[in-house]
Amino acid sequence: MDAEHSSFSISSTDLSCPEDYVVEGRNLLREGDSIAYSTVQHGATATNFIFFGPYLTLSPGVYLFQFHGQLDGQLRVDFADERGTVVLKTLTINNFFDPVCLVVTKTVSKFEVRGFKTPALGALKLDSILVEAINFPLTL
Q1: The model's pTM
Q2: Among 62, 75, 83, 115, which is 20 to 30 Å from 98 by CA?
């Protein structure tokens, strides 16, 4: 059985940031093409969300998510479908060096990656998420 490999990138501009961070029409988490969070600057904001999206369709397969940017502390990440109502996996990461693996067993049509602040999060800068997909052809 030959696996099919592909990859794509989720830019931080493809992700949304909560309206809670908007001041005078500008989202304070946006720093150029990156999402930049600092507990010192943004910690008092009531929401735990930092980013979410982009609402993709994923076929069954194994997906490796490699976050690009900088992380100081711990970030809670989850992978969800149906605009967050179905959580596929939740974990806390403390670096952007190790890829995160997600196995998708059925097609998901409103897939999103969500980042949440934790008490141990000092700062993060998210530039993009590289996604490597490994799909296995169906055999009957």
Answers
A1: 0.91
A2: 83
